[in-house]
Write a structure and sequence with these properties.
With 168 residues, the chain is an alpha+beta fold. It is built from seven helices and four strands. The termini are far apart.
Length: 168
């Protein structure tokens, strides 16, 4: 076997387009979002993380109140700080933290360079997604931290898809 055959093949992650990210937000909308919904969604995220042995922290906020939080093995207090910073982006911009960062990148800059926001308070990195209620708008955020940002984003989207398919 040649050295080339022993080298793992690297397939770059396909970064979602702005249109795809915006479509996710239009599609992943709740009819209502109760304390029970937050518990069920948070529990689903924890179950998914345990299955994958993902070292993440999970957080769900609605209207300024933390409704769910869990820290799985391998996560750290830094993940909680990232959750807060990513959630603030969702609360300020009404869009997922990954989409906000992608919008800046599409303009040839970065959130950090151009937002004029305190980087200790805001992070436009993937993992926080708006909780949007039909006819109401964004009422909160579901956030995961502990994986690379695109994986955090995809993890939350997958959980929301499963939840909305099953519970609503």
């Amino acid at each position: 076997m040649s050295a080339h055959e022993l080298t793992p093949k690297f397939t770059p992650e396909i970064t979602p387009s702005l249109e795809e990210l915006q479509a996710q937000e239009r599609r992943l909308v709740f009819r209502q979002f109760t304390h029970e919904d937050a518990w069920a969604l948070g529990s689903l995220l924890v179950d998914m993380a345990r299955e994958r042995e993902a070292p993440v922290a999970v957080d769900i906020h609605r209207a300024g109140q933390q409704l769910f939080h869990a820290a799985l093995p391998g996560s750290s207090p830094d993940n909680d700080a990232w959750i807060t910073r990513k959630r603030r982006v969702v609360e300020r911009f009404g869009a997922s933290s990954y989409l906000v960062g992608a919008r800046y990148r599409a303009r040839g800059t970065t959130f950090e360079e151009s937002s004029r926001l305190d980087q200790d308070a805001y992070a436009a990195h993937g993992g926080s997604f708006p909780v949007t209620v039909e006819g109401v708008g964004v009422v909160g955020a579901v956030t995961v931290s502990g994986l690379p940002q695109l994986e955090d984003h995809r993890f939350v989207v997958e959980a929301l898809e499963r939840f909305l398919e099953k519970y609503l």
